[in-house]
Amino acid sequence: MADTPNDCLLSDALARLIEHADAALPQRFRLPGGHAEPRAPGVIALVPDTPATDAAATIISVGLHGDETAPIELLGRVAARLDAGQWQLAAPALLIIGHADAIRAGRRYLDTNLNRLFRRDGVAADDPRQEAQRARVLMQAVDAFLAEHAAPSGAGLPGATDVPLHLDLHTAIRDSRYPRFAVEPCSDTPTPATVWPVLAGAGLQAALAQHRHSWTFSHYSRYYHGLAGFTLELGRVAPFGANDLDALEPMAALLQARLAGTPPATADTARLAFFRVEQELMRTSDDFTLAFAEDIANFTRFDSGELIAVDGIDGETRVGDVPLHVVFPNAGVERGARAALLARAVPAPGAPPAAT
Ligand SMILES: [Zn+2]
């Protein structure tokens, strides 16, 4: 099919997909260096005319939680710069507006948390929840895209462009000692060593390794496809127009470099603080209280012997021999759900263990 020149800008297309996930877009439209192909509601593939040597595919997803607006604005900024010819497409990519209905409603989700549903046998075809149907669409879109873009060597130099990535962009509900941090899903696929300097160069400050499977979107790409997938927390939730995008400019630069097939900025991995989840704090009874203020910052440290929580059935949870850092605390979850992650500081991957 012939392209229709100038019939749609990428930034406009993304905005229209937020207005309506089923927005009528051209089946294909020109971009500087390539073209765009809408693949599914809220999903656009970017296809370069001439891929740069070794340039690997990138999946960029935003708005899986509808109230997390900074990543949506960040992707819009990157797209507007492409529309303006400030950079040229030279690597394949899949852009995903996760949950347009929730974005328009200004809510994290409508029926249930979308970012827990990315499991192939975990969502019934007749599940009536909106997010269940959305997860199926997104899993199929990722499967189809990655079938076109085979997996990776990942053995290059720091800042190499040959490692496929899935960057699922979020913002957190609370403050954090490290406002920008990566969550590394639990998987048999280790993160290629070349990726950490890239994340440091994009302004990330910490990385949290999950200790068990959690059926998030980035875990989906890693678990089923062996892709280096990350959930990236980029500061704190704010309404449209109230985000500090300048603080995220290094992340915008990373997205642009990936899509332009050019080596991204890198920084010393030592600039990242590494943590590993030690245990999940569960709410077992209705009679459950956290031993600290609800609005405590992520990664707040608790020392040996300090009280973390009291549960009517499980009793007290106290810190053992090693200090723990509390991440994503929420006392208000339903019974049987996770009320916080308790993480310990660990050496950078590949670094010799610290003397204790
Ligand atoms: Zn989120």
TrEMBL record:
Its cofactor is Zn(2+). It comes from the Bacteria. InterPro entries: AspA/AstE_fam, AstE_AspA_cat, Aste_AspA_hybrid_dom. Keywords: Hydrolase, Metal-binding, Zinc. The keyword ATP-binding does not apply. Gene3D superfamilies: 2.40.50.630, Zn peptidases. One of its GO terms (molecular function) is hydrolase activity, acting on carbon-nitrogen (but not peptide) bonds, in linear amides. The keyword Hydrolase applies. Residues 272-343 form the AstE/AspA barrel-sandwich hybrid domain. It holds the Pfam family AstE_AspA_hybrid. Residues 57-252 form the Succinylglutamate desuccinylase/Aspartoacylase catalytic domain. NCBIfam families: PRK05324.1 (NF003706). PANTHER family: ASPARTOACYLASE (PTHR15162), SUCCINYLGLUTAMATE DESUCCINYLASE (PTHR15162:SF7). This is Succinylglutamate desuccinylase.
